[in-house]
Amino acid sequence: MYNNMVTSLLLHGRIETTEPKAKELRGYAEAIIQWGISVQPLIAKGDKASVDERAAIVHAHRQAARTVKTKDALARLFGEVGAHFQTRKGGYTRMLKTRTRKGDAAKMAYVELVGLNGQ
Fold first, then answer.
1. Which of 10, 22, 40, 59 has its CA 20 to 30 A from that of 92?
2. 61, 32 in Cβ contact below 8 A?
3. What is the DSSP letter of 13?
4. Where are the domains of the chain?
C-alpha cells in the first residue's frame, strides 16, 4: 500500500490520505527521494561518467524501483524531484491536516512534496 502511495505522491506531487497513513508515508517517501538525490551529480556528468559512476546510477534506479511502481514516477524521481531537492538536507515532504471524513470520521491529511509544482 505504501509503495503505491509513494508512486502516486511522486506522480502527482500531493495526495490525500488518513493522518496515521500520512505520518507513516513520509518516512517511506523521504527514503526514496534520497535515492534520487544521491545520484544527481553523477547524472549531471552524462557521458563523462565513469563505469563505476554509471553502476551507481543503475543501482539507485533499481533500489528505487523496488518501491516506485511506474516508469513515469521513476523518471520524475530521478529527473525533476531529485534535481529540485539536491541542495536540501531533508524535509522533502509535508503533511497538512485537512478534514474529518464523512462516514467513519477519520482524520484526513494531505502529503505533498515541498516546493514542487509551485507550492
1. 59
2. no
3. S
4. 2-113
DSSP per-residue letters across 22-66 = HHHHHHHHHHHHHHHHHTHHHHHHGGG--HHHHHHHHHHHHHHHT
The dihedral through the CA atoms of 107, 113, 118, 119 has a sign that is positive
Q: What's the pLDDT score for residue 108?
A: 97
Model pTM? 0.90
Instruction: Map residue 86 onto helix, strand or coil.
Output: coil
Per-residue pLDDT at 115: 87
Under CATH, domain 2-113 is a member of which superfamily?
Answer: Ribosomal protein L17 (3.90.1030.10)
Average pLDDT by consecutive 10-residue portion of the chain (119 residues)?
95 96 96 94 90 94 94 95 92 95 96 78
pLDDT (0 to 100) of residue 113: 95
- The residue among 106, 76, 60, 91 whose CA lies nearest residue 13 is 76
Query: Distance (Å, rounded) from C-alpha 111 to C-alpha 97?
Result: 9
